[in-house]
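Notes continue from the previous slide.

Worked example: a multi-chain complex. Inputs as given:
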Amino acid sequence: MFEYAPAPESVRPQIKEHYGLFIDGEFVDGQADFKSVDPSTEESLFTVAEAGEADVAKAVAAARRAHETVWGPMSGAERGKYLFRIARLLQERAREFAVAESLDNGKPIKETRDFDVPTAAQHFFYHAGWADKLAYAGLGPDPRPLGVVGQVIPWNFPLLMLAWKIAPALACGNTVVLKPAETTPLTALMFAELCQEADLPPGVVNILPGAGATGAALVDAAVDKVAFTGSTAVGRAIAKAVAGSKKKVTLELGGKAANIVFDDAAIDQAVEGIVNGIFFNQGHVCCAGSRLLVQESVAGEVLERLKARVATLRVGDPLDKNTDIGAINSAEQLERITALAKAGEEEGADAWQPACDLPERGFWFRPTVFTGVQQSMRIAQEEIFGPVLSVLTFRTPDEAIAKANNTPYGLSAGVWTEKGSKILWAAERLRAGVVWANTFNQFDAASPFGGLKESGYGREGGRQGLEAYLDV
Amino acid sequence: MSDRLRVNKTYKLYVGGKFPRSESGRSYPVSSPDATVLANAAMASRKDARDAVAAARKAQRPWAGQTAYLRGQILYRAAEMLEGRAGQFAEEVAEATGAEPHEALGTVEAAIDRLVHYAGWTDKYASVLGGANPVAGPYFNHTKPEPLGVVAVVAPQDDPFLGLVEALAPAIATGNTVVVLASESKPLPALSFGEVLATSDLPGGVVNLLSGKVAEVAPHLASHADVNGLDLGGVGDAALAAELEAAAAGTLKVVRRPGRAGASLDLLRQWTEYKTVWHPAGMAAAAGGAY
């Protein structure tokens, strides 16, 4: 194998020592401050204000005012121009956002640079174009916005999830109060600065850093709609909290996706897809292909090539352009991954890890492949949200579908075969909101994303995603 | 008037294509608004609700797997059957609600027309709601609506027939199967509707009809893990509706709250979920991803 010299990213973003809450177009103090940590070094990056109940009420009131006085009455074409402007500014500052995201989240610069930030910009550009065309969305001749939207997003794709939430909400004429994840507020706050730079009217976008309590307060506040991406447990709590109210809700929750490799698949391509499916973003992906279902007759060959490929992955400094797998986002998440991997070994599955060095400080987990996995094991049932793949085998296509659907989740699935009719047969039967055939982990602003069953309801992206932010 | 003794009908549940009594052995008297006792109806229990969900689950995959054209023909067949028995249903509706005979007949005719309307939707809604997505890469990307699965419906209380048909037709048109809890005090037209469905080539278990107490049966449907959607259209008590919605949150069911009517396309959309399928459209894109 080739040795690579380190290739560190040289652009450094201007990170402030302290960020406030972004309410009504200005940064203000919160009830307390907390630290944001670089998970690859465990060093503190900056401090940030935490929003309490009173701050939430203030932000919601500002959003209400902005909705009633500015953003609601504004023509769709003008709203769209603000969103185009935001998309352009994000593109202009793309490298700075990419580096900031890697620092605060721990994910490799290769991914923030080539995926997170450009896809976020695309999301704004795409939805900007909808703002004056909502009458053509198939949702009635004059669909109206909902009003004020409370949004809570996770730490795995901080800027991209913000874009998925804010872009359609604003395009449809709503105003928003968004809570970024506790461990990754940086790019949301940089986005707040970008809103100022874009002269977005005050109150249209409000950003409230905080933890679970801030999110709960936002759900309970006087908002017209709650949009959440995160764990199924929290999703359930939100669905309960809004019961009996007039609040609309969309939930994008957990997953335990099956990635099915049939014996007539192109094996090398499938192996690349398996690697992309589970090790993209350290496996911190709700739609990760965390269960590999491989047909028994090719299992040996697939596993051999898979291990050879995984052994070439480079784990380490997120800001090194050669890095494939960065840091685990937090000590807490590392603990959860470690505990589930341990449960896998205790329940009798065989763990395999490549021999690779891990940095001394920071939160790291080696890419791990479990074989001999039974459906009843925790590593086959629970979402690990880390670089851990569980391998199961099957004999017949019917068995593959039955095993794939044997989960309370229904977010995504993968199918690998060179036979077109088999792809369509499988796609029809898989209970998942997104099916990737001979590919995996593809996302696009024009393509609706979201799950069924306990992976939640509602779609983000595409024409169908607009339903979540219109009164229809 | 002849002195022949009239043969009274026993109103039973409709579950899995059969007409069972409640397994609990219970029944309750059903009266018209002027307090004339019309008949006894079976009082469904928790077990009946569970049996109905099991029947609906068993029927769902085959029903969704039928061609849209066939689903349309079966719904149209139900309209044909109902047309032939419109007089009987008008009488039952009039007795149940106290409406004038011509008004009652009007609601039955409206119900027939709704069935015809949805019969025509089965092979069109997917192309209206779904479509090809122009993604920024060499991929074929396609979205289409699919049925949620099993939908539990609490049917409207005061509009015992038209309301029921309007609630269940869009759900089954898209390939869902349903468990319907009929109007508590006016269940008879709904229970007779089972006879129409049973003779319309609708496979057993696609529609399951229960009569009984909303407050007793609905919570079991709301919390049942094998129910995917919950229509609270017929729950008048706001506190009970909130409780049922909270129970449905346990397994993240899609819930339709009381009090909101919609256009037929909105109702079709309510009980569907979008599935999006990606496939590479060029050799270079075959593997995808960043690695």
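Summary box: The mean pLDDT of chain A is 97. The first strand of chain A starts at residue 18 and ends at 19.
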